[in-house]
Amino acid sequence: MTRHSPPPPTMGCSDAPVLKERGQHEVFCGLTGIIWLHRKMQDAFFLVVGSRTCAHLLQSAAGVMIFAEPRFGTAILEESDLAGLADAQDELEREVDRLLARRTDIRQLFLVGSCPSEVIKLDLSRAAERLSARHGPKVRVLNYSGSGIETTFTEGEDACLAAMVPALPATDQRQLMMVGALPDVAEDQALDLLGRIGIDNITVLPARHADARVGVGPNTSFALTQPFLGGTHSALERRGARHIPAPFPLGEEGTTAWLRAVARDFGIDQARVDAVIDAPRARARKAVAKAADSLAGKTVFFFPDSQMEIPLARFLTRECGMEAVEVGTPYIHKALVAPDLELLAEGPVISEGQDVEKQLDRCRTARPDLTVCGLGLANPLESEGMTTKWAIELVFTPVHFYEQAGDLAGLFSRPLHRRDRLKLEAAE
């Protein structure tokens, strides 16, 4: 299905009723965000203060080989720590001292809280202050919570970036801040487009290196690249920065709207923007059309997982011709996703939160062509003959901006191609 320009929705979903669910939910915890954050911030280290279960989760999810030395680790809370028989603060500080003595390349150290550290009320903020005083200014020590008690996994990145904002230096310079951890290839393409459009003072949060000059102030406008950064959004506004509302840069339409919104904020004429983006827009439309041929007319059902569900539903329905049955998301932050909701045509159930058994019943009744869900639900649904897409892959795969638009569509078309091939093999 090829569209030169997506049609306008008959009526957007901005004011659509929201099914609010509170019950058992199936998501990874916020520690998972370390998997892509440690790759992004090249002189940072993430020290999880948690149990052996936390360590096993990170090792399994990241697939770290035994000879690799990643930029994350776990300070194990032993039984004596949990029982209050040892001074966990003193032990943590000794572990940090040993780590920094061995890894002299570390410039930022994040103490990451977990379920066990929060249960015993370990004060990591106090530890971060003492360690910063001891090891600064060479090493800046910050803390945030990656606990999975009441969070979804992308909130780990949000908590990390929000913890960085109060420590940013103040600046009065007129600047754009691009916010969200993107793979380097996508970030570089975005910076190139923005530069050619005419925006010459751009900072990125998180920066790849701790010594990057990232300041914030009343003349800072910030554009989010990820829809799960509600805490970071609030932290930046408290520092006086101004948010640029826009659809998220997923697909040709979302990327175009995002770039035009940024350009408007900086007083740049749309004709100049269009002259820069015409060629990459055409490439994006052509790439998406290849995958859209197998997606057009198919139904898609989103379980709440990454908080990317609303922008993805907008992309799949408007650029790929799919029909959304239900768009479930852990949280709906209207200040962030309102522009995408306005473009999403009415029709699908919009749900916030999760009661997994009820949602599974709705999914089984609908029998969608494609179900986007977490790993814990994918295999059971596949065993029932349903076709699934892992939501977590959409977070750390390059999918933003024009050159990745075709890859984004391909992530959804491949499970359908796999299903068709299996059917052919079974029939032979």
TrEMBL record:
Stored Gene3D superfamilies: Nitrogenase molybdenum iron protein domain
Entry's EC annotation: 1.3.7.7
InterPro entries: LIPOR_BchN/ChlN (IPR050293), Nase/OxRdtase_comp1 (IPR000510), Protochl_reductN (IPR005970)
Pfam families for the chain: Oxidored_nitro
Entry's Gene Ontology molecular function annotations: 4 iron, 4 sulfur cluster binding; ATP binding; metal ion binding; oxidoreductase activity, acting on iron-sulfur proteins as donors; oxidoreductase activity, acting on the CH-CH group of donors, iron-sulfur protein as acceptor
Coiled-coil segments on the chain, per record: 82-109
Cofactor(s) for this UniProt protein: [4Fe-4S] cluster
Pathway per the UniProt entry: Porphyrin-containing compound metabolism; bacteriochlorophyll biosynthesis (light-independent)
Domain Nitrogenase/oxidoreductase component: 29-384
Transmembrane portions of the chain: none
Alphabetic keyword roster: 4Fe-4S, ATP-binding, Bacteriochlorophyll biosynthesis, Chlorophyll biosynthesis, Coiled coil, Iron, Iron-sulfur, Metal-binding, Nucleotide-binding, Oxidoreductase, Photosynthesis
GO biological process: light-independent bacteriochlorophyll biosynthetic process; photosynthesis, dark reaction
Reaction(s) catalysed (UniProt annotation): chlorophyllide a + oxidized 2[4Fe-4S]-[ferredoxin] + 2 ADP + 2 phosphate = protochlorophyllide a + reduced 2[4Fe-4S]-[ferredoxin] + 2 ATP + 2 H2O
Free-text remark on how the cofactor is bound: Binds 1 [4Fe-4S] cluster per heterodimer. The cluster is bound at the heterodimer interface by residues from both subunits.
Annotated binding of [4Fe-4S] cluster, by residue: C29, C54, C115
Subunit structure: Protochlorophyllide reductase is composed of three subunits; BchL, BchN and BchB. Forms a heterotetramer of two BchB and two BchN subunits.
Family stated for the protein in its record: Belongs to the BchN/ChlN family.
Function: Component of the dark-operative protochlorophyllide reductase (DPOR) that uses Mg-ATP and reduced ferredoxin to reduce ring D of protochlorophyllide (Pchlide) to form chlorophyllide a (Chlide). This reaction is light-independent. The NB-protein (BchN-BchB) is the catalytic component of the complex.
Protein name, as recorded: Light-independent protochlorophyllide reductase subunit N
Biological source species: Salibaculum griseiflavum
Lineage summary: Bacteria, Pseudomonadati, Pseudomonadota, Alphaproteobacteria, Rhodobacterales
